[in-house]
Amino acid sequence: MGIKVKYLDFFFKSIHLAGIRPPYAGVVMCELGNQIMKYKGDEGLFTYVKDKLQRPAVPMTGKEFFSELGFKHTSIDINGKDGAMKLDLREPIPKELWEAFQVVTNFGTTEHIDKQTPVFSNIYELLVKGGVVMHIVPAKDGKLKNHGQYQYVTDFFNFQKERYGYTYIMPPLERPTIPGCISVSMRKS
User: Fold this and answer.
1) Which of 100, 120, 150, 177 has the CA that lies 20 to 30 A from 183?
2) Would you state the pLDDT for residue 77?
3) Which domain holds residue 10?
């Protein structure tokens, strides 16, 4: 789906509620998929970075954006493009990545993966205790209902919360600022 300005509002609110504040240098982050910043019609995208940074002539990757903010960023994508670590999230991740990240984002990746159980198990393994995971995924009955192989309902995330012992930072729902998607942020206990 790419990363839109409205996703960034959710991202920053979630990490701030979790106690992660600027400067972000040293905050270790994993982005699922090698996302592209989508700013068509989104004004002020780079106000999150620095006033002097201009909108790029070509799309900026999530890796470039979050690295510019100071995050120690890793992206994981089966395609290995744009600096992403080439991993198949349907398979167990290497143990050296277990509990390696304070923040994990899933902004439009899991709905494209045909095996959901190992993907969500891997997300749990990636997070340190107290780490934050954020999901923005198509809602079952939302305007993106034909996007990807899977569309989600809030009960799916209630199940994930119970299964892995997460606590909600922002509970799952279709927020007016992110229509057509379920957005949720959780902390690993």
Assistant:
1) 100
2) 95
3) 3-174
- Judge whether 104 and 132 are in contact, CB under 8 Å: yes
Residue 126: closest CA among 81, 85, 176:
85
Q: 137 and 182 in contact (C-beta within 8 Å)? A: yes
Residue 180 counted as domain residue:
no
User: What CA–CA distance (Å, rounded) separates 158 from 2?
Assistant: 25
Confidence (pLDDT) at 68: 86
The beta strands (E) that lie in 16-166 are given as 28-32, 37-38, 72-76, 101-107, 127-138
At what angle are helices 116-126 and 154-164 packed, to 10 degrees? Answer: 50
Q: Is residue 155 part of a domain?
A: yes
Dihedral (Cα; 160, 75, 99, 87), 10-degree rounding: 80
Taking only the tens place, the pLDDT of each residue in 99-155 is 999 999 999 899 999 999 999 999 999 999 999 999 999 999 877 777 888 999 999
How much is the pLDDT for 51?
Answer: 42
Q: How many structural domains are present in the chain? A: 1
Q: Which CATH number belongs to the domain containing residue 69 in this structure? A: 3.40.50
Kindly state the tokens that stand for 172.
Answer: 């799952």
- Cis before 22? omega within 30: no
